Amino acid sequence: MLLLKVTVILIMLAGLTLTLLPRMPGTLVIMGAAVLYLGATGAPAPPWVIAALVVLAFAAEVGGRMLRLYLTRRYSLSRVFCVNSSVGNIGGILAADALLGPVFGLVAWEFFAGKTLAPRWDTIARVLLRLAAVAVVRFACGLLMIVLVLVYIMG
């Protein structure tokens, strides 16, 4: 029984981590872990808890996608470009620092790549901030789902 609880908790924590990624259904993983526990133990669950889990999963997955589209609709840069350019810029700075030294590498990178990103950085930062807000909403829904499972189903 203890092994089952530990396994379910680990699955739920993995689902909680997946809520931070835009295309991963983390709350559905949390819901699956709850169903796994209920199926393995045959424990009764209050109907309102099951309904709350379904509503939270729906709000996080469907609502999160709609909110992401709504918040980033006015920007000409795509969400993928904003994330990739930010990660690529950080990776490029690290690579240039490793190859050319900390001072010269940073200056060289900013001279060649930084000036192409600078005019778009305000837009990129706004899109990334909105994407982070959606991730926080999904994370909060997942965390609330885990609390409901731990208190009312496993408790």
In short:
By secondary structure, the protein is an all-alpha fold.
Please give the structural blueprint.
Layout: H1 2-18, H2 26-41, H3 47-71, H4 79-100, H5 102-117, H6 121-153
Helix pairs in contact: 1-2, 1-6, 2-3, 2-6, 3-6, 4-5, 4-6
Question: What helical percentage do the residues reach?
Answer: over 70%
The portion of residues forming beta strands comes to under 5%
Query: Mean pLDDT across all residues, rounded?
Result: 87
Rg, rounded, reads 21 Å
Shape field = elongated
Report, as a whole number of angstroms, the end-to-end distance: 13 Å
Regions with pLDDT < 50 over 5+ consecutive residues? none
Number of helices: 6
Largest sheet: none
Task: Write down how many β-strands occur, each being a DSSP E stretch of 2 or more residues.
Answer: 0
What class, by secondary structure content? Answer: mainly alpha
